[in-house]
Amino acid sequence: MRQALVALACGGMLLSPTLAQEGAREVTFGAVTYALSCAVCHGEAGHGDGEMADELAVPAADLTGIAQRNGGVFPAERVAEVIRGGSAVTTHGGQMPAWGLVFLKDPSGPADGQPATSTAVERRIAELVAFLESIQAKP
Ligand code: HEC
Q: I need a surface site. Which of 41, 95, 108, 128 has the fewest CB within 10 A?
């Protein structure tokens, strides 16, 4: 039994991509979605200086400083919540769209061309979170 489990575990490792590869894939897809949906307000590099920044009553946050503003820890769950729910969950009443809804209605679907089911939307949000984590300013 134990041998069978070890064999299963090893087989799984051979067949599935490594965690590092999976993480890199997530970040790449997240970067694509970011460029298409977020950069217009938050800026290409996430500093809150996108083309629309001047038109916003509440500034689009500098997304490279999320961890710094949170005592050096990147709050992945909270970031996912804000992306999903938009300004309904932010504190300043800004015009941050609720991407959970936007992505669900997006006729072009996620970056990998899959239909926009709620599972696909959650994956897309997770990819954005992974991308945002990858661009955090170092302390
Ligand atoms: C129309 C402009 C606009 C677009 C487009 C936009 N945002 Fe925002 N975003 C904002 C504003 C404004 C805030 C600040 C809201 C507040 O504090 O009430 C914000 C806040 C955030 C925050 C919270 C930051 C913090 O430190 O609490 C995150 C995370 C975020 N946006 C991610 C994204 C992502 C990811 C996308 C693309 C999928 C995106 N935003 C697209 C305007 C925008």
A: 108
Distance CA 43, CA 34 (A): 10
In a domain, 58, yes or no: yes
Largest CA distance in the chain: 64
The H or E element that residue 5 is part of is helix 2-15
Separation CA 12–CA 139 (nearest Å): 37
The whole-model pTM stands at 0.86
- CA nearest neighbour of 33 among 133, 132, 135: 132
Distance between Cα 47 and ligand 1 center (Å) = 11
- Look up the domain containing 88 and give its range: 19-134
Of all protein residues, the one whose alpha carbon is nearest to atom 2 of ligand 1 is 41
CA distances (Å), origin 75, targets 56, 104, 129: 25, 24, 9
Per residue in 51-107, pLDDT (tens digit) is 999 999 999 999 999 999 999 999 999 999 999 999 888 878 788 999 999 998 876
